[in-house]
Amino acid sequence: VQLVESGGGLVQPGGSLRLSCAASGFAFSSYAMSWYRQALGQERELVASITSVGGSTDYADSVKGRFTISRDNAKTTVYLQMNSLKPEDTAVYYCNARRRVVDFWGQGTQVTVSS
Predict the structure, then answer these.
(1) What does the angle CA 35 – CA 41 – CA 45 come to, to the nearest 5 degrees?
(2) pLDDT tens digit sequence for 13-36
């Protein structure tokens, strides 16, 4: 099983980034997918999630209206489009796959929002 995040980097406040998470080794379309983030010295928090069937989405209040999660089951990839980025969005962003009690995590990608 692999979850490989990419797309992180340094961006100025107000800018945009698109994170990708390429999945392999499991039945991607059967898993709910999520993005979490962990800022330095803080606990990991859920940012956005998308269901396996129907593609229903949910967002943390702090990112609603700015971030969009999507998935492409044919490419076994989940995305996080991040717009209007703020310094408080700075964190390591992790991809998560979940089905019942099974949980997979990626290695994370750093997002830094700074001028």
Answers:
(1) 25
(2) 999 999 999 999 999 999 999 999
Give residue 9's region: left, alpha or beta (phi > 0; psi -120 to 50): left
Q: CB within 8 A of 96, min separation 6: which ones?
A: 3, 33, 34, 35, 36, 103, 104, 105, 106
* Residues recorded for the chain: 115
> Structure tokens of 100?
């019942």
Burial of 71: CB neighbours in 10 Å, binned 0-12, 13-18, 19+: buried
* Site of tokens 């998308």: 50
Inter-residue contact 36 to 60 (CB < 8 Å) = no
